[in-house]
Design a protein that fits this description.
By secondary structure, the protein is an alpha/beta fold. It has helices at 2-42, 55-58, 68-78, 96-105, 122-126, 131-148, 175-196, 204-207, 226-244; strands at 49-53, 87-90, 115-118, 156-159, 199-201. The chain has a 5-stranded parallel sheet, sandwiched between helices. Helix 7 links the parallel strand 4 and strand 5. The longest helix is centred in the first third of the chain and has 41 residues, at 2-42. It is globular. It contains 9 helices and 5 strands; from the N terminus they run αβααβαβααβαβαα. The chain starts with a helix and ends with a helix. The chain folds into 2 domains: 1-44; 46-244, SGNH hydrolase (Rossmann fold, 3-Layer(aba) Sandwich), CATH 3.40.50.
């Protein structure tokens, strides 16, 4: 009888130990799953941003960290999006033709980008290029931008041309004519953008505020300051977040 009782107790203890071992193993397995998921999330490749343009995109007369593509990427990273440093193809003085030549000869870091922005045209206006030429060349640039976004037109953002007529640089020029011509070129890039169903960000009216606020201008009296580029970056980041969500 005593021997039977001992066997019952031993069996009971064995069951308890087995249950404890099972629960412990299950807890460890669940913890490993959580860690694996977190690691997988952290190892996702960073998103890429390609910015195409001219002096405004390269940030003439401001520090690198004040460029609007750089400020935009920082804002997105601060909001939890994992972006690598933006890739910028832009040079002061470039027209649509110059940008197209640069793209043709450029060795891209990536074949497809998560976001592509395009801001070009002020030098077409300044150099007296025709609007018909601008339309044709801008269309080609936009087609290339969509290709660089992996064929996703919804991941391309066209930015309107700033109005430099409000800057000291234009004091000796016909400011009203410059402003009207900028509007005409913007009407072209807006219509082309609508045809290709890409996103459009109008910052032209914002740039005209520099007439009454010199802090929005760089020291050269023509280009914009980091403060102004920060305003563009805020607006651009909002659009990019909508695209990615």
């Amino acid at each position: 009888m005593i021997l039977l009782s001992r066997n019952i107790v031993a069996s009971f203890l064995l069951i308890i130990f087995a249950a404890i071992f099972y629960l412990s193993a299950k807890a460890n397995f669940n913890q490993m799953q959580v860690q694996t998921t977190a690691t997988s999330s952290n190892q996702r490749p960073p998103k890429t941003y390609l910015a195409l343009g001219d002096s405004y995109t390269i940030g003439q007369s401001v520090c690198e960290y004040d460029r609007y593509p750089v400020q935009t990427a920082k804002l997105l990273n601060d909001k939890g999006f994992h972006f690598c440093d933006p890739e910028i193809i832009a040079t002061t003085g470039w027209t649509t033709s110059d940008l197209q030549k640069a793209i043709t000869n450029y060795h891209f870091k990536d074949s497809i980008y998560d976001i592509v922005s395009l801001l070009i045209g002020v030098n077409n206006q300044y150099q007296g290029k025709s609007q018909s030429e601008y339309k044709d060349q801008f269309t080609l640039l936009l087609q290339n931008s969509i290709k660089l976004a992996g064929g996703k037109a919804s991941h391309v953002i066209v930015i309107s041309i700033p109005d430099y007529s409000v800057t000291p640089f234009a004091n000796a020029s016909n400011k009203k004519l410059i402003s009207r011509q900028i509007d005409s070129f913007n009407m072209i890039n807006k219509k082309v953008s609508d045809v290709y169903k890409v996103n459009y960000l109008c910052i032209t009216d914002e740039t005209r505020k520099a007439y009454a606020d010199e802090t929005l201008l760089a020291f050269d009296g023509l280009h914009y300051s980091g403060k102004e580029y920060g305003i563009w970056a805020d607006k651009l980041a909002v659009q990019i977040i909508k695209i990615l969500q």
